[in-house]
Amino acid sequence: MKLRRTLLSLLAVAAALGTVLAPASAQTYKAEYRMSLVLGPPTPWGQAGKVWSDLVKERTQGRINMKLYPGVSLIQGDQTREFSALRQGVIDMAVGSTINWSPQVKELNLFSLPFLMPDYAAVDALTQGDVGKKIFQTLDKSGVVPLAWGENGYRELTNSKRVIKSPEDLKGMKIRVVGSPIFSDMFSAMGANPTQMSWADAQPALSSGAVDGQENPLFLFTILKMHTVGQKFVTTWGYMADPLVFVVNKDIWTSWTPADQAIVRQAAVDAGKLEIAQARKGLIEADKPVLKDIAAMGVTVTQLTAAEREAFVKITRPVYTKWKATVGADLVNAAEAAVAARKK
Ligand code: X2X
Description:
It is a single chain. This protein is α/β, with parallel strands linked by helices. The protein folds into 2 domains: 162 residues, Bacterial extracellular solute-binding protein, family 7 (D-Maltodextrin-Binding Protein, domain 2, 3-Layer(aba) Sandwich), CATH 3.40.190; 143 residues, D-Maltodextrin-Binding Protein, domain 2 (3-Layer(aba) Sandwich). It has 16 helices and 11 strands. The strands form 3 sheets. The protein has a 5-stranded mixed beta sheet, sandwiched between helices. A 4-stranded mixed beta sheet has the order 8-5-9-11, covered by helices on one side. The chain has a two-stranded parallel sheet with strand order 6-7. The radius of gyration is 23 Å and the shape is globular. The N and C termini lie far apart (82 Å). 42% of the residues are buried.
């Protein structure tokens, strides 16, 4: 009896000690974390979030569970509010496009400068080099923890009206653009009639014909079967590509042990690498299978010649110059030098 009582009190002491000695952070982990995304699986963007979440769950033995909220549903689809919501903790983590965060972080407009990045080597020269590091420092100062790069991709032009080969062809055309002011500037400069709206609003606007066209990476054309909403013409012009960034809210980040932080960071890097390859699949091969698939849907695909492209470069040059000052001339100069020095 006495022995049993002693054992029981020893157990009670051990239990109390266990509570005291357990790492404080373990108690502050949430059962589930909320990850924001605009595009969900099966897009490369959505896959980026899924692979990140799966790797983290597996490598932390379930200590960190990140649930995907595509369609920026945590902020009712209002994608240009995502960065503020991340900072405020409404969102715990995100895989987000530089376009959607650029209203809050002006340096991110770098990637939207028209025709700054002529090819994927140029994109890599920026994100994987010193310019990418500088952007990460800026994001860190802006209140989030940046971990890795991913890619939405080259945004090509689609429309329901006609073949577009020159700025004249674009004249007066109603084009849906993202709610980031540089896009309105670019499309106005090209003679189009840009309308800012979220991606959530863009899809019904395309279906109803409220807008004539839009610009997005071509995997989205195939996944959403955009020809079924009247998008019969595609022009590949490679005017800009938006990278994705994997980030975590600062308070959430500091609530994790250093070992778990390392796991989350490495998982983001791994997921980013995989995703970039997926986003480029079908577009980097010589015969560009994605373009063939789209043409097979009865869509007219126009690949601009160098001379045709040059007309768009020229007409958007004043926008480039104006926004170079907003982004910061030093950063843009560094980016231009990195692009010029890239290995092709
Ligand atoms: O809104 C868009 O066009 C999209 C899905 O590409 C972004 O979120 C930038």
